[in-house]
Design brief:
By secondary structure, the chain is an all-beta fold. Helix content is 0%, strand content 31%.
Length: 58
């Protein structure tokens, strides 16, 4: 019988994007006032840079 290989533990999920790698941002229109609209767009999570893993604490 072969020995079982140990799988490494999964890294913790990013707290800002819940492990998805993307967040949603409000669309703003207008050059001067930049009023917010009801629309949303996808944006890359700046905490984990889209990987979905929590950053390493230093």
């Amino acid at each position: 019988m072969a020995t079982r290989k140990k799988t490494p533990p999964k890294p913790p999920a990013c707290p800002d994007c819940s492990g998805h790698g993307e967040t949603t941002e409000t669309v703003r229109v207008g050059a001067r006032k930049g009023r917010a609209t009801e629309d949303r767009q996808a944006a890359l999570c700046l905490t984990c840079l889209g990987t979905g893993e929590a950053p390493a604490e230093e």
